[in-house]
């Protein structure tokens, strides 16, 4: 859902919808629920929901940069017995594919269309974010991610094996530009190994804070990602600084 990566086309493919939580579905009573279920808002994945957020990102010691993020549920379609949810992160040039099955939000990949080129990503199996995780619980997957870019002249395909783990670390209070919140804290790690290119191996560790109550329940408030690749370490901190639209259907 997901500020886990700055763009939905990043190699980690972390939920694409960068500011949304992929962590469960539940009530607004976070005092009663000690699991992660309050930190998922099912309305984020209903037809015609639109969320528009301004986020501030800082890479290492560079000045912070502001950008806007759109989450727009454009359609839902039954495909091979699965209700696929299509989410656009822009004005319709791209489509991120989700489903909600077996107590988890599943990220399947995306299609993106630019002038003269088409990009696609598929994950086997789909990346799973379990709905109600207990504090300290960890889930793990090995995922094969296939990325392709097609033009009139050629198609370039990259296959990457992802070692993916996700831990729910519990609740804590957090103060952000949007205010003070009770939040769920998650730790996600992804070790990416591109086929035939060991020099491009990378490891990313992301800590996410997701609102568990209030108006913005389910919104990822802040993320800190530490990425190690080719002997270099980068730290990216992203925070939701302004909610421009929060139209939950």
Keywords:
single chain, 249 residues, mainly beta, twelve-stranded antiparallel barrel, 61% strand, globular, disordered N terminus
What report would you give on this structure?
- With 249 residues, the chain is mainly beta.
- 0% of the residues lie in helices and 61% in strands.
- It contains no helices and twelve strands.
- A twelve-stranded antiparallel β-barrel has the order 1-2-3-4-5-6-7-8-9-10-11-12.
- The protein is globular, with a radius of gyration of 17 Å.
Describe the secondary-structure layout.
Elements (H helix, E strand, L loop, with lengths): L49 E10 L5 E15 L2 E7 L5 E8 L2 E11 L2 E14 L7 E14 L3 E22 L2 E16 L7 E10 L8 E10 L2 E16 L2
Antiparallel strand pairs: 1-2, 1-12, 2-3, 3-4, 4-5, 5-6, 6-7, 7-8, 8-9, 9-10, 10-11, 11-12
Report the end-to-end length measured between terminal Cα atoms: 17 Å
Summed over residues and divided by their number, the pLDDT gives a mean of 88
Helix share, percent = under 10%
The DSSP helix count reads 0
Q: Rg, please?
A: 17 Å
Give the biggest beta sheet.
12 strands, antiparallel, barrel
Q: Tell me the fraction of residues in β-strands, as a range.
A: over 45%
Q: Can you count the beta strands?
A: 12
| Helical/strand content category | mainly beta
Report strand order across the widest sheet: 1-2-3-4-5-6-7-8-9-10-11-12
Low-confidence stretches: 1-19, 21-33
**Succession of helices and strands:** EEEEEEEEEEEE
Q: Write down the overall geometry.
A: globular
């Amino acid at each position: 859902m997901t500020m886990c990566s700055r763009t939905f086309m990043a190699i980690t493919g972390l939920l694409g919808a960068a500011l949304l939580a992929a962590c469960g579905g539940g009530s607004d009573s976070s005092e009663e629920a000690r699991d992660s279920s309050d930190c998922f808002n099912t309305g984020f994945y209903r037809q015609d929901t639109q969320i528009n957020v301004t986020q501030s990102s800082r890479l290492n010691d560079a000045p912070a940069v502001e950008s806007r993020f759109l989450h727009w549920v454009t359609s839902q379609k039954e495909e091979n017995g699965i209700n696929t949810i299509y989410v656009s992160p822009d004005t319709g040039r791209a489509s991120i594919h989700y489903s909600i099955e077996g107590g988890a939000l599943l990220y399947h990949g995306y299609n993106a269309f630019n002038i003269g080129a088409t990009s696609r990503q598929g994950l086997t199996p789909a990346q799973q974010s379990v709905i109600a995780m207990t504090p300290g619980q960890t889930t793990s997957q090995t995922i094969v991610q296939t990325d392709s870019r097609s033009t009139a002249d050629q198609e370039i395909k990259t296959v990457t094996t992802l070692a993916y783990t996700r831990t729910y670390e519990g609740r804590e209070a957090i103060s952000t530009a949007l205010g003070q919140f009770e939040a769920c804290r998650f730790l996600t790690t992804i070790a990416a190994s591109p086929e035939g290119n060991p020099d491009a191996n990378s490891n990313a560790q992301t800590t996410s804070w997701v609102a568990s109550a209030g108006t913005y329940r389910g919104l990822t408030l802040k993320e800190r990602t530490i990425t190690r690749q080719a002997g270099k370490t980068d730290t990216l901190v992203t925070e939701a600084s302004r909610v421009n639209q929060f139209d939950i259907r």
